[in-house]
Amino acid sequence: MPWHLLTWIIPAYHASLPDQVTLLASGRLMFHGACDDLVPWFGHLGYPYDPSLHGVASDWALDLVAIGFQKPRQFYGHTITNMEQLRRASNEFVTSYTAKSG
């Protein structure tokens, strides 16, 4: 299985985070939109974010959609674990996004 690495580096002097985020996993679009909408979207799909359990939301989102490794339940809670769940989440996002975009 090929590995893909995504690196997001923000210099310490950068005053703000980006307004938009695009999240891809296994070649599928998982989310595209305002950063503030990322956590509610995955919560709507049944993947709640808990800062005390998951830490930083951006790290949680990357871990949520990464498959192909064992995710300890005590650290990840309810998470995407296989390609079928990944496809389902991606299809739901794409359907919602295209309906809103026209």
Give a quick set of tags describing it.
5 helices; about 100 residues
Gist of the model:
The chain has 102 residues and is of the alpha+beta class. The chain has five helices and two strands, in the order ββααααα.
Helix content: 40-55%
Alpha-beta content class: alpha+beta
The mean pLDDT is: 83
Cross-sheet strand order for the largest sheet: 1-2
Question: Could you explain the architecture of this structure?
Answer:
Helix content is 45%, strand content 13%. The protein has five helices and two strands. A hairpin with a 2-residue loop joins strand 1 and strand 2. The longest helix has 19 residues, at 83-101. It starts with 19 loop residues before the first strand and ends with a helix. The mean pLDDT is 83.
Layout of secondary structure:
Blueprint lengths: L19 E6 L2 E7 H10 L6 H4 L2 H9 L7 H4 L6 H19 L1
